[in-house]
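Comment thread on ticket #2218

A.B. wrote:
> Attaching the input chain for the structure job we discussed in standup.
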Amino acid sequence: METMNTEITPIERVGLARHPQRPYTLDIIKNLFEDFVELHGDRRYADDPALVGGTATYHGLPVVVIGHQKGRDVNERRYRNFGMPKPEGYRKALRLMMMADKFNRPVITFIDTPGAYPGVDAEERGQAEAIAFNLREISKIKAPLITCVVGEGGSGGALAIGICDGLLMLENAVYSVISPEGCAAILWKSPTQSALAASRLKLTAFDLEGLGVVDVIIGESSENRVNDSEIYQAIDKQVHAMLLSLLGLSDAERRVLRFQRMRRLGEWSQSGI
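C.D. wrote:
> Ran it. Output below, let me know if you need it in another format.
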């Protein structure tokens, strides 16, 4: 894996994070996990192909793996809803996490979504409530929780499966409350200000590491694509190391540290007074 490049601009990293040939969740599962059995449905409404998950074996250990799934061609993108889950997707994810907690299996999640689907049908079925409920319930889970941002981490759509004990992020991934285009449209009423918005949002892995949001940055070259073995090796190395460190803690210790970690996010301070 190449040395990390800190010279790439934030808006350039947004483009890299959205590249259609970056590895998606199912690619990572295929390369890093064994015996994957995909589980479907939220037991309330339907299955959501934008968010996939199931049981698997990771380095000989039974785990539950969950992640957003985008599509590569027009038909798959429509089927996967461009990786934007609806409420049933988040309820499916929570169902799988609660199952993992029941059987004491670590949970590994992969984030890559522009955000939760904002359509009328999703709102009618309780999109905001599903995300909020996940945030509360996931925080209570005793099993180890590891999250890796591999592409776009868009707002609550990402955070709904992103409550964790340790957060990893690929070097060219982004994680933000809103897209640069959306921010530019709100603040400057112009899409031409997207580059400025990207720099102000502090959405890169390096920005977020400095803010204490990201625990580990996974280095990558700007050319990493779905068929490159190096990116999977880099993800595997860091995820496995974090999993081993978390398994060395008791359930109670992990929950205390998780609470403390979440409370540190968004801390505000003022100087010069």
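A.B. wrote:
> Thanks. Noting for the ticket: The chain has twelve helices and eight strands.
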